[in-house]
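User: Could you walk me through two proteins back to back? I'd like the raw sequence and the structure tokens for each, with a short line separating them so I can tell where one ends and the next begins.

Assistant: Of course. Protein one, sequence then structure:
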Amino acid sequence: MDEGFKKAGEEFKVDTKTIESTDPAAFEQNLRAAVAENYDLIITATQVVNNPNIAIHDIDLTTTQEKTQILEHFNDSMAEYPMDKTIHGLFEEQVARTPEHVAVVFEDQHLTYQALNEKANQLARTLKAKGIQNDQLVGIIADRSLDMVVGILAILKAGGAYVPIDPRRRCRAG
């Protein structure tokens, strides 16, 4: 056996449980539950023993139960939103509550709610003057930036629906 593995093995710890029962059926049931609960870790330990050169990033130390808890329970972020309000309406409510708080950050730039609202309102007025109507699709070609956020919000405020267009792709008419 590899000398480095022996050293690591000397520090290996095993948790134990004492089962307060003399009933063999109860013992067997508890043993089966413990093996089932830790089956993934048993498989992982077997892989490590069989391949002591395995990279640490290739070792999965979470059980199926832990993965389920992380992915399904901790990630349960479903939220109710008012169905009678628009995105830009909710945004304006936030502007009224916290006008000087930072609304958006991009790299080393930021805009407060008030500043973002003012820029979006100005662009929305320009879009309306150019003929944007309710429910009209409006393409937006922009790299990720503060201007892109202003543009999206302005399109919504003008009554349009924005259609993101990747600036790295060429647009061809017809």
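----
Protein two, same layout:
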Amino acid sequence: MARKGVQKVKTGCITCKLRKVKCDEGKPDCARCTSTGRRCDGYPPRQQGAFSWDELLGKRPIIPAITSRHTTQEGRALEYFRCVVAPAFSGWSEDCFWTRLVAQASSMEPAVRHAVVAISSIYEQIGDAVLPGDFLDSPNGRFAIGHYNQALKQLTKTPDESVVLFVCVLFVCVEILQDNKDAAIAHCRHGVSIFNNVKDSGSAWTRDHLLPMFVRLSVFPFFFGGTLENFPGLDGLDWNNSAPHASLDDSRFRLDLLVSRGVRFIRASDTYKRDTPSDPQISETMREEQNRLGLWLDRWFEDFTYFTSTNIPESEAMSICLLLQMKYLVSKIWIAVCMDDTEMGYDQHLSSFQQIKDLAELAVASEHTSSSQPAKRLPSRSKFMFEMGYMPLLYFVIIKCRHLETRLAALRHLASLSAHRENFWDSVHSFSIGWSVIEREHGIEFDTL
């Protein structure tokens, strides 16, 4: 026999559920309460992990309005992230990871929200590249680290590996902001290992939005202590996709795949350097991989050139086009020379070095011509960028090219195009080393450029 009376209420505001009446679920206050003069106590939060990624990332305001659930300081940090941090982190890309996905997920997943508050609070305290030495002992520092610890705690309650991967990117960011190389690499290693285990059964959303991020993050550890033995590669990727490029972000992802594989190859080639005591013979496998990467890079450039000729980039997209071409040229040079037993091999690539210099000059010009659209400007000279920009590419030219005029031009462009910090690369440090190397190798001294 069916139960008599009103059907049990499972949804609705807290007040209506206590009264056991049907709620119209109006927001922010339901009409059932307000029309009778009662106070609507709002709605209980959904359990962590109860949201699908479609719900998390559907169309809605980037950052929800600050509510009583947020402290004033926390609400301010979330707003600062939306207005300042997310656009700076996005750089030149069309990717919406920072400007939309992170911001929206922060309203649904506590671990994401706490991590975003930590990132925002730390970023705001950064000067022209570094945190103040007493930051961790300051009230702002304790606030940021407190939220970071809360994010770590919340993550242990999350069974969804997609959420774990998502927050892992944010944890890498927190550690990079604090210049903690080992901790950032450890988080990145953990994320890559998880991704390798879940990618076949993971959601399409994870592959579309998190895979490109982890491909790019898999590069920086090899410049700051990571080795082939202690840092895993991403498995089962389509390194040589022959389909036409669909967008600039698609072009970027395909090049990033090749760069990620190329950097691992370059580190594997360290065995063949001239200062290696055993002086091993270069294996046929290594030669085949070198040739394969060179062919794939050239094919990428052909496809990219066709795409940009048939889909003329708008002026605000010019910076990413120039950056991708520079990254392609640096990758080509380095992969071609990495197994040579002397540095003389770089001399054969002077024309490519000069092309990189010319592309940087176009980027400087693009910076000036886009100044009338500040929302779309190249984010150069910002205090921090999460990912690699112009700096490491121009630094490569400064250190490896032996043509004085090209090196000096690259040094000038590094000073004008680079953010103060790009990932762990520091512009002041890079500029100073480049200046010193040029003076020493060319036997000159100069006061200014």
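DSSP finds 17 helices and two strands in the chain.

Let me know if you want the two compared in more detail.
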